[in-house]
User: Fold Glutathione S-transferase from Pseudomonas trivialis.
Amino acid sequence: MSAPSMTLFHNPASPFVRKVRVLLAETGQQDRVALHGCMPTPVNPDAHVVQGNPVGKIPALRLADGTVLHDSRVILDYFDHQHVGNPLIPRDGSARWRRLTLASMADGIMDAAVLVRYETALRPVEKHWDQWLDEQRNKIRRSLAELEADAIAELTSHFDIAAISVACALGYLDFRHPDMQWRSDNPQLAAWYADVSQRPSMLQTQPPL
Ligand code: BEZ
Assistant:
C-alpha cells in the first residue's frame, strides 16, 4: 500500500470532519488520506489550517499538489467523485436538491450545536448570552422535528450524503449536548439512529469519550 497522498486537517470531536471520514469509510477511501490532528477554536486558530484555509475551519483537505479544499461540503463532493460505487451525492435531478437540502439541515444542526458548545465551554459563564443560546437550541429542535415528521423514509432508504450528515449531527448532540435529550421528542429518528450508528463507518469515527 502506498503512503496517503492527501492530508485531512481534522479533530475527532468535529461533526463536520466526521461526515468526511464516514464518507471515506463508506466508499473505501480511508487509506488515501493522512490525518493531521488540530484543535482550532474561534479564539485560537491553528496556524497549519490557516495557511490553507484563511477562515481557519476544519475539515480542510490538502491534495497531493498542495491545493487545499474546504469546507466539508466541498470535500465530500470531491471524494464522491473519486470512487466507482454509486454516488452518495446524487449528480442531478430532484433527488440531488432534496438530499442536499436534508444535508444542509443537518449542517445547520451541527452549526448551532457547535456554537452552543463554544459559548458554554469557552466563554466565561458571566458572559453567556442566554437568549442567543436558547435560539440556537430552538434551531436544533425545529430541525429535528421536521426530520422526524418528513424525512424518516428518505433517511432509511439509503445511507448517502443526507443520512451521513443527519447521523453525524445526532452523534454530536449525544457527544456534547446529552442534556437536550433529543430522543424524547423524536422516536422515529432515535430508532433510525440506533440502527445506522452501528455501521462500521460510524463506529470507527465515534468522537472520543
Ligand atoms: C468540539 O470539541 O466539540 C469541537 C471540536 C472541533 C470542531 C467542532 C467541535
Remarks:
- The longest helix spans residues 93-122.
- The chain is about 55% helix and 5% strand.
